[in-house]
Task: inverse folding
């Protein structure tokens, strides 16, 4: 049986499922890319704050 891993919680889900059974996150490639962009944005924000106030 083929599965794919959730980008948010790491749970294995069936390949044809659209949402994670554990956390409810969407299992599309676009959702994983958006999650990485959000994480990168938060890191960039903290870096900029550190540059201006330190």
Result:
């Amino acid at each position: 049986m083929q599965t794919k891993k959730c980008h948010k919680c790491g749970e294995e889900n069936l390949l044809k499922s659209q949402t994670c059974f554990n956390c409810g996150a969407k299992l599309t490639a676009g959702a994983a890319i958006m999650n990485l962009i959000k994480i990168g944005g938060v890191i960039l924000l903290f870096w900029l704050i550190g540059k201006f106030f330190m």
Notes: The CA atoms of residues 10 and 22 lie 9 Å apart. Helices lie at 29-53.
